[in-house]
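WARN  no MSA supplied for this record, continuing single-sequence
INFO  ligand: protoporphyrin IX containing FE
INFO  echoing inputs
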Amino acid sequence: MPDQPSASPMPELFTWEFATDPYPAYAWLREHSPVHRTVLPSGVEAWLVTRYADARQALADQRLSKNPAHHAGSAHAKGRTGIPGERKAELMTHLLNIDPPDHTRLRRLVSKAFTPRTVAEFAPRVRELTDGLIDRFATQGSADLIHDFAFPLPIYAICDLLGVPREDQDDFRDWAGMMIRHGGGPRGGVARSVKKMRAYLAELIHRKREAPGDDLISGLIRASDHGEHLTENEAAAMAFILLFAGFETTVNLIGNGMYALLRHPEQRERLQRALARGDEQLLATGVEELLRYDGPVELATWRYATEPLTLGGRDIAAGDPVLVVLAAADRDPERFADPDTLDLARRDNQHLGYGHGIHYCLGAPLARLEGQTAIATLLRRLPDVRLAGDPDDLRWRGGLIMRGLRTLPVEFAAET
Ligand code: HEM
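INFO  complex generated
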């Protein structure tokens, strides 16, 4: 079935304008070519799925594999899934690259160590980290909320949770910085950072095996299921994917979220009034809405058809890559009333920001904790926070997977 003819031309994808505001292009695709074959900037051909119903179906469809070996142009596609250094075989065993039954086994093991309770017990530390970072710039009257806040918070949080000693955490921040800045860029620096991180994690796992602590890496080593344990390689890959999957996503949740609030003063004041009353309900629904409205993960990571299938009326061949465009699905008017309106109190908000199905975000409770704590604390401590400069000058990092701001300069009345 050819793309339907239409009056309005299709907006170009993957341009600078698209990175700045992809939503008009997504609206066009949803309407005119909801399962759309395109050539990605890397030269790889893939299907983009933009309607909510198709997206949800694709995310849960077991015929769509996460294993890149299923890609028809496999050798061509390797290393292009957005995860730096992924060519390395050891990294291929992480959750986002495997299918059942291996996925089921690894996910069950990690779920024993990384429980909602682990996260709940971590809440005071997240508050302490958040306040500590704000302390560093609160008296200055201005800050870059990405560099000074959204970027360091998740990396320190995950490091703490995993059990990376404080004195080593700045190394992690630098390695992660290299990956976020050059995600698909110069391979050399990224590959070196991945290598250093891997070597460090292998060594740390070794140490924790000798002297276990009260941390997630020790928990991963301890976790067992029917007598099965994670191998050291699997534990290292797991720690790596927790860092990797939980880092840039959370940076962008805080960055995109604060940006949306700064652009919607009535919503932000509504949230500030609720927080002042001690009402945290609007914070909880609000952070979900910020995820729906401009979520960090634009395209769910790659899937590959293991057999021919039909999706949204299009025939997808075995071996074809399929990209589910979460950001487009979450603005689908067939699913959400007034989808382009930010409504922090939105009910019936089953967005796909954390994915759906067996790969549903394992870190969602931690992301919610960090997102809610970060946004509430910023609004409480810097009540008059406002954008510094012209929003049109802001630059977006529009990767294929993530969408987020490079900088978010703000001003506020300095704390004395
Ligand atoms: C999976 C989003 C934070 C760990 C996913 C997926 C999405 C997602 C969309 C599914 C990808 C797919 O199906 O292809 C987010 C967002 C976050 C966030 C929007 C922040 C706002 C975190 C954090 C962690 C984490 C903080 C851990 C510390 C994971 C892991 C997976 C995953 C391990 C793979 C699960 C599996 O394949 O079974 N996330 N994530 N995420 N996320 Fe998150």
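Residues 59, 95-96, 107, 158, 241-242, 245-246, 249-250, 253, 295-297, 300-301, 326, 353-355, 359, 361-363, 366-367, 371 surround protoporphyrin IX containing FE (CB under 6 Å).
INFO  checksum written, moving to next record
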